Amino acid sequence: MFGEDSYCWFNHTTTGICILDLKGKVESVNDTFEELFGWNRMDVIGRHANFLPHVPLVLRFKLNRYLKQVKNDNQSIQYRTIRNRKSGIAIYVDVTLSPLILNEITTGYVGEYFFNSVYIPDDK
Question: What is the pTM of this model?
């Protein structure tokens, strides 16, 4: 999936990363994703983004809307939201959702999660 440089970035960044295929199913997550949310790879790989355990039920429709927007526009979007840790604690995160482009072809999506210890409501 990744070249050596990308693999290094994927596994050694402080950003939680989730890679989705074009249908929205999880292909991979990095170590920081596991640490941030408490879910391991086996909990999420193969599941559709709308049914990931860290996405609160009431926010799944918004995630689906964001996935469609990135797919239609082929551009990154950023938003602020709430996600659940495996422990049940809700945390605030800033998310960048981007198309994953390899050899000039969109092959999926990359979700990057940044922990936000102070919540400032998103105006969108």
Answer: 0.83
